[in-house]
């Protein structure tokens, strides 16, 4: 229904633009005739007026696409921030907050979540300095957290052994906060009204963001594969997050590197990946319930069972990938 309504609004908008352009041309022709100027001048005015109207219409449609993409990235950032916030809260509580730096992802994650929710509802076309600052801080904390977790693994006897990778600080967990900050900062940059032809790293923004989302999805798959391997893939459903998202990431990278086109197959796999994130929460809830005492012993089983906040990372990155493809459609 929303698409039909948007189509009707677009048709009426184009009709109104055409009527306005016709009125402008008629007025220009009348002015030329009144001054006794040749008809060719009126035809030139017709051409210039029509070209100007088309340029304005294209710029307006492109700007709307940028704002819509920015809001989608804000929402994806909020979901990743929620995942990082809740996961770090559980894991750092289990670690008794031994280091005061363990409070940092909770504070920045909460701020990034609030910024993402605020940005997702913001239709304004200007960059919000407060949100942008929060996103940059979240990305910085994510990078620092990766360094801390890497140190935690390497200081253990055996260094990069399977045991330390399984039971040490998870290397991929802080990356969710980094991705949250990066997606949010990109969303703010897309809102800049003076940025009509967005570029990132020397590439069109849609192409760069599709590659970024594909890389983030691949990294998340690596973390999930490690943890599910630790669980010996004891349930057949544990193979789903290491098979569906990699295909979606590959198709998204292919769509980014190829010429802009419909890419309906890529969109289908991205939607499947987004749904997988929601379904995964249900399986993790079941995994907690299967532990001794079930949810009656939630205070212990939440700490030892499968992490509930982890699967929505796939939903967030798939949503970002879909937004990048919509932005890619404007880069024809």
């Amino acid at each position: 229904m929303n698409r039909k309504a948007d189509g009707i609004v677009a048709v009426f908008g184009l009709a109104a633009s055409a009527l306005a352009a016709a009125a402008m041309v008629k007025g220009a022709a009348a002015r030329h005739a009144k001054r006794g100027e040749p008809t060719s001048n009126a035809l030139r005015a017709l051409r210039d007026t029509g070209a100007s109207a088309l340029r304005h219409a294209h710029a307006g449609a492109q700007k709307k696409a940028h704002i819509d993409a920015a809001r989608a990235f804000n929402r994806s950032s909020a979901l990743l921030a929620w995942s990082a916030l809740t996961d770090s809260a559980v894991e750092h509580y289990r670690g008794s907050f031994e280091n005061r730096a363990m409070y940092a992802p909770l504070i920045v994650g909460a701020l990034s979540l609030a910024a993402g929710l605020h940005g997702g509802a913001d239709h304004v076309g200007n960059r919000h300095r407060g949100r942008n600052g929060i996103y940059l801080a979240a990305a910085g904390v994510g990078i620092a957290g990766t360094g801390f977790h890497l140190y935690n693994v390497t200081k253990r006897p055996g260094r990069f052994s399977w045991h330390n990778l399984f039971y040490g600080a998870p290397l991929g967990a802080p990356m969710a906060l980094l991705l949250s900050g990066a997606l949010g900062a990109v969303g703010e940059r897309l809102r800049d009204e003076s940025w009509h032809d967005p570029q990132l790293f020397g590439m069109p923004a849609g192409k760069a963001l599709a590659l970024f989302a594909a890389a983030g999805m691949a990294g998340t798959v690596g973390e999930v594969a490690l943890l599910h391997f630790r669980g010996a893939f004891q349930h057949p459903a544990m193979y789903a997050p290491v098979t569906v998202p990699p295909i979606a990431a590959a198709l998204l990278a292919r769509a980014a590197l190829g010429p802009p086109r419909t890419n309906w197959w890529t969109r289908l796999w991205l939607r499947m990946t987004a749904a997988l994130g929601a379904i995964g929460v249900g399986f993790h809830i079941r995994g907690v319930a299967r532990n001794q005492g079930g949810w009656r012993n939630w205070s212990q089983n939440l700490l030892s069972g499968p992490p509930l906040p982890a699967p929505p990372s796939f939903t967030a990155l798939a949503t970002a990938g879909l937004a990048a493809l919509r932005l890619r459609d404007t880069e024809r």
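The beta strands are 199-200, 203-204. Residues 39-94 form the longest helix (56 residues).
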